[in-house]
Write a structure and sequence with these properties.
Layout: E1 2-3, H1 8-16, H2 18-21, H3 25-29, E2 35-36, E3 56-61, E4 64-70, H4 75-89
Parallel strand pairs: 1-2
Antiparallel strand pairs: 3-4
Amino acid sequence: MFWDANCVWCARFDHDIGPIYAKTSEGQRAPLRKIDVAAKIPADLAFIETERYTPVFVLIDNGREIGRIRGYPGEDHFWGLLGVLLKKLDGDSH
């Protein structure tokens, strides 16, 4: 998750999903790592194209980007979009 301290939608995600994410099956498969866009991007993530908007959720597998969710569309939509990304991770693009 690329986030910004002044991002209202980042704060909303933290409130709605942050406390439970790691406890979910999705969170177990795709652990959340928060990267502050105001800081230098860690070397192991240098291959990721950053964006100026936040939050951006990027699913990575073995050093390659599987897909991303731009923005926080609310709890229900977030889980649905994450499910689509996890299907891509499984090789199912449908």
